[in-house]
Amino acid sequence: MIIARTKEELNRYLKLVRTAKKTIGFVPTMGALHKGHLSLIKCSNAENNFTLVSIFVNPAQFNNPDDLNKYPRNETVDLDLLTSESCDIVFIPEVDEMYPEEDKRIFDFNGIDEVMEGKFRKGHFNGVAQIVSKLFEIVRPNKAYFGRKDFQQVAIINYLNKNYLPELGIDIVSCNIIREDDGLAMSSRNQLLSVSERQSAALISQTLKKYARNFSEYSVEELRNKITDEINLDKNLEVEYIDIVDDENLQTVSEIISGKTTICAAVYDGTVRLIDNIAIS
Ligand code: AMP
Hints:
This protein is α/β, with parallel strands linked by helices. The protein contains ten helices and nine strands.
């Protein structure tokens, strides 16, 4: 596996890959890799000749400096995992390499950035768009892989790709959520949970699943309140939001239509903020 730390190094390798007419699959990550990330790499390997993974903890998408400082980092373990997953190149730039000067671009997402994560993490999606657009322009992949764990992020990336970067011709592929045995969505932030918080965390997906199954017994408002109250009963958990949204425009629905509606959650487990979602089918 090739390790590139600068754009110049990366470009040198990518030139050879393009000359050989190989298709490039790209998996952007913030490291502290787990089976969720590895599933995206597996998808990319299955659909492309060549897989490139980036590891970059992007300061521009953190609205909370404490969250950025605490974010788990473990390059040695990540490199081992990437090698065993047959990643071809990993790009690990420093902050100055990606932001040699301040990025002042402001993206307009036609409102899909104003709900849920966008409402509670001001500027988060603008920061995501800044880094992903830079990476897309450097890597110019055929396909890029994102997890539905970050449901709203997938919508933002699709919008960015279609409206801001159409000339790159990238296909965005969204992949299933990978979960622990008890249902907890895998996340780098799970490493930050204490033993008791880790036990509580399972309740988030279990509650979402239970109400997604029984959705027809309740109104949207009742469903939202039931899920919130049930999660908040646990001493470690505090719901930041539960939203039940239309898969297309991400706005709160007045009526649930199976196959077109998703329940999304952000929950504090102690001081660790976890997100999850479940599609109503
Ligand atoms: P992150 O390193 O958290 O920025 O995540 C990098 C990519 O992995 C994003 O596209 C995430 O949506 C995806 N991802 C993270 N956790 C999971 C998971 N449990 N299942 C599937 N994809 C995931």
